[in-house]
Amino acid sequence: MSEARTARTAQPSATRRQVLARSGASVAAIAFAGSLSELFAGTAAAQSLGEQGYGPLVSDPAGLLDLPEGFRYKVLSREGDPLRSGEGRVPSNHDGMAALEGRHGRVHLVRNHENRVTAKIPVPTVEGLTYDPMGKGGCTALTLDHRGNVLSERVAIAGTAVNCAGGHTPWGTWLTCEETEDKAGTNGYTKDHGFIFEVDPEDPHRSGAVPLTAMGRFQHEAVAIDPRRGVVYETEDAFEKPFGLFYRFLPDKPEGGLGSLRAGGTLQAMRVPGVPDLSAIQETGASFDGIEWVDVPDPLAARTPVRLQDFGPKGITHAQKLEGCYWGGSSVYFVSSFAHSAQGSAADHFGQIWRYDPNSRRLTLVIVFGPSTDVQLPGEEPDNICLAPSGGLMVCEDGEGAQHVFGVTRKGEVYAMARGRQNTGTAQKPAWGEFAGVTFSPDGDTMYVNCYSPGTTFAVTGPWHR
């Protein structure tokens, strides 16, 4: 079932906010460090965005998604609807997602379902695609034609658990990540969980349901691949202290290709000399040379979670809420969604983006978010992030109050690209579903994004290059 709406009548532009320079002003929404040319470059054919983004949001009469004037959305899929394959119903909890190029102008959307054992609608089990029959999570795949119409929708992997984010590969597959470290016998599981799985959207049976065990067993969040070296970077979203680590995986077959990561490799964790906790770094532009990578003693965490293992007398570097991870230009970027000293972090912050340059072995804090006291303004807890084809960022908000997809232009303007209107709470205590899985079609003409709950996948089109 498909729904389409066009934004027509503008509301007051209370959601845009000018980025302030590094003045220390408490009202600054985002602070940048130095030049982010590769981050904001966009595609070669893209035109620059203006200083004001795309204008104010307009109210959606259908009560689903507010967008700037001239933009339209289509609902591609909603939880509870029948899967077009006939395998069951569309599962709950839409999370990370990628748009991958298919044949004849088609686009494959691979979508995670962050389902725990209590999930309302689990991913249906399918022979040859199910890892653990007791796992309720997994991925579904939608194939769209060149006009954006849904041609098919099917299970891509099942029997996994808490599939949060992941990342695409240079060879056109999706790496889906389990954000759990439950072992067999816990919550009724018959197998250990906490792995990465490769998903082939063209033919899921070619990838099957095989855990990439050498890449570690921990609370995975997202991955990004260096396309030249084949190195895979991984974030860990650990909920309790000691918090997660930032990893790299050195594959034995760095040339890549479907199934190449099954051949194994070496998992390492990042050590920033003299910095046991990244939250202690508050100044944008702070950088550290000589970053070290330490072999993980036991990637399978047979007895001890990886972040608790012995990394030697120098220890290892932790960070709270490591989430989004992506490759841009010659560097990998990763997100710390927030840090709270009351929960054990060395300091408080409302969101950071770090850049690691493997050529110089330098780590730099490039963006700091928040705080914001107005739920309608950009503020804390950035989650999934992607590079926009016209340059800049798209940021999924995962905090309190109203939920947005925010954009950041190359001129440093923060603007609201979308606002969710689906209320899963009450009139007295509203609760809007977070956004997740923001991604763009290979041609850059369509933005796809999920509402986590109620699970909804949107396709947004409009004057992206005006």
3D structure, described in words:
This is PhoX family protein. Pfam families: PhoX. It comes from Streptomyces antnestii. The protein is mainly β. It has a single domain, classed as Neuraminidase, CATH 2.120.10.30. It is 1% helix and 36% strand. The chain contains one helix and 30 strands. The strands form six sheets. Strands 2, 4, 5, 24, 25, 26 and 27 form a seven-stranded antiparallel sheet that branches.
Short description:
This is PhoX family protein. The protein has 466 residues and is mainly β.
Which helices and strands, and how do they pair?
Layout: E1 3-6, E2 17-18, E3 30-32, E4 57-58, E5 65-68, E6 72-78, E7 94-101, E8 107-113, E9 137-144, E10 150-160, E11 163-168, E12 174-178, E13 196-199, H1 204-207, E14 220-225, E15 232-236, E16 246-251, E17 265-271, E18 287-288, E19 292-295, E20 322-328, E21 331-336, E22 352-357, E23 362-369, E24 382-387, E25 393-397, E26 404-408, E27 413-420, E28 435-440, E29 446-451, E30 456-461
Antiparallel strand pairs: 1-6, 2-27, 3-23, 4-5, 5-27, 6-30, 7-8, 8-9, 9-10, 11-12, 12-13, 14-15, 15-16, 16-17, 17-19, 18-23, 20-21, 21-22, 22-23, 24-25, 25-26, 26-27, 28-29, 29-30
